[in-house]
Specification:
This protein is of the alpha+beta class. Helix content is 17%, strand content 41%. The chain has two helices and six strands. This is PilZ domain-containing protein.
Amino acid sequence: MTEMTQPVPKSDIDAAELRRAPRDEVALPTRMIDAQNRAADVLLVNVSPLGFMVREYGSTEKGAIVKLQLPRLGDVPAKVVWSLGGRIGAEFLTPIDQYAYTAMLNAAKARRQRWPMG
C-alpha cells in the first residue's frame, strides 16, 4: 500500500499553492472582523468552501482568528494561515456546505466590483 503525501510548504506562498479545494475568483469588497471586534474593509479575491484570500490595508498576523462577512452567510469565522504584503489566506473554522456556498457565491458575484486596491 502506497501512502500519498503532499510536499511540505517552505513558505506561506507555498502553503497557498497547496490548497485542498479550488478557489472561485470573486473580487468582492467586504469586511473582516478581528478578535477585538474591530472591522476593516477588505477585498475578497477568491474563496472556496474551505477558505479564502483577501487583500487588506492592515497586517493581520498568521494564526489570528477573524470573521469574514459573506453574502447570505453573515460573519464566518476563520484562522489566518498565511499573511504577506497586504494579502492573507485563511481557512474557515467550519467548512461551508455546498448549498450555502453556492448561494453565497451567486450573491457575491452579483455584487462584485472594482476596489481601489486594484
